Amino acid sequence: MTLDPLAPSAAPGIAAATTDLTKVYGAHDTRVTALDGVSVGFREGEFTAIMGPSGCGKSTLLHCLAGLDTPTSGSVRIGTTELGTLDDRQLTRLRRDRIGFVFQAFNLLPTLTALENVTLPLAIAGRGPDQRWLDRVLAMVGLAERLHHRPAELSGGQQQRVAVARALAGRPAVVFADEPTGNLDSRAGTEVLGFLRDSVRELGQTVVMVTHDPVAAAYADRAVFLSDGRLVDELVRPTPERVLDVMRSFDARAAAR
């Protein structure tokens, strides 16, 4: 029997992980090491925030985990699937079937309705939605009255709700969110963070979010911290105050150099 290399892991535990992950851009005088030997795991059914100073490698780590960027060395796994062993077709299939992504800039198609944007990845894959699951997702993000509106008819917060629902619609193994509240006011940002947290608590989803905001990180079950491309700290059940303390320690180290 031939095993499907994209089949999800049968064993519960780690939804995504890296081992000795290194990412280098440029060469010689322009060489920049964005990630320097990062080994980290993200547990199933958990909301994790990735934090650190600007330029520390947060988004690079997220993009490597999601298969949107290729590591220089080391490994990335979704479940037990090693991304480095996949060809382009298999990697596209994995991103389509097992990964959801929420972008800071929403990335909605302006000519489609909210519902059409939510179900677009499924339509591209040639499969219909699990209607019971889709109904739960749409109810959770509160889109019932806006399903037939186009993005231009929605507020920024409503557009990001559509983006969250789109990421969840295919019931992925993990949802990655890159600064999902970066373009929102505080009220809309709070709503979106609540939806991400509820998707973990109510739907059993796994969410990994990059953020620079200590208040946003406090919605997570765990926060991991990068500095200069390395994993340097971790908090369980983070609060804004504890996150700020860790971030201040980075500032103190930078000032002492």
Blueprint (SSEs and pairs):
Layout (H helix, E strand, L loop, with lengths): L13 E12 L6 E12 L3 E5 L6 H8 L7 E6 L2 E2 L5 H11 E4 L11 H11 L6 H11 L14 H14 L4 E5 L7 H18 L3 E4 L3 H4 L4 E6 L2 E7 L3 H17 L1
Parallel strand pairs: 3-8, 3-9, 6-7, 7-8
Antiparallel strand pairs: 1-2, 1-4, 4-5, 9-10
Helix pairs in contact: 3-5, 4-5, 4-6, 5-6
In N-to-C order, the SSE pattern is EEEHEEHEHHHEHEHEEH
Low-confidence stretches: 1-11
Number of domains: 1
How many helical stretches?
A: 8
Query: CATH topology, which one?
Result: Rossmann fold
The coarse overall form would be: globular
**CATH superfamily caption:** P-loop containing nucleotide triphosphate hydrolases
Number of strands: 10
Distance between the ends: 58 Å
The biggest sheet, with number of strands, parallel, antiparallel or mixed sense and barrel status, is:
6 strands, mixed
Describe the structure.
- With 257 residues, this protein is of the alpha/beta class.
- The protein has one domain (45-54, 87-256): Rossmann fold (3-Layer(aba) Sandwich).
- Helix content is 37%, strand content 25%.
- The protein has eight helices and ten strands.
- It has helices at residues 58-65, 88-98, 114-124, 131-141, 156-169, 186-203, 214-217, 240-256, and strands spanning 14-25, 32-43, 47-51, 73-78, 81-82, 99-102, 174-178, 207-210, 222-227, 230-236.
- The strands form two sheets. The protein has a six-stranded mixed β-sheet, with helices on both faces. It has a four-stranded antiparallel β-sheet with strand order 2-1-4-5, with helices on one face.
- α3 packs parallel to α5 (156-169), α4 (131-141) runs antiparallel to α6 and α5 (156-169) packs parallel to α6 (186-203).
- The longest helix has 18 residues, at 186-203.
- The radius of gyration is 18 Å and the shape is globular.
- It starts with 13 loop residues before the first strand and ends with a helix.
- Residues 1-11 have low confidence and may be disordered.
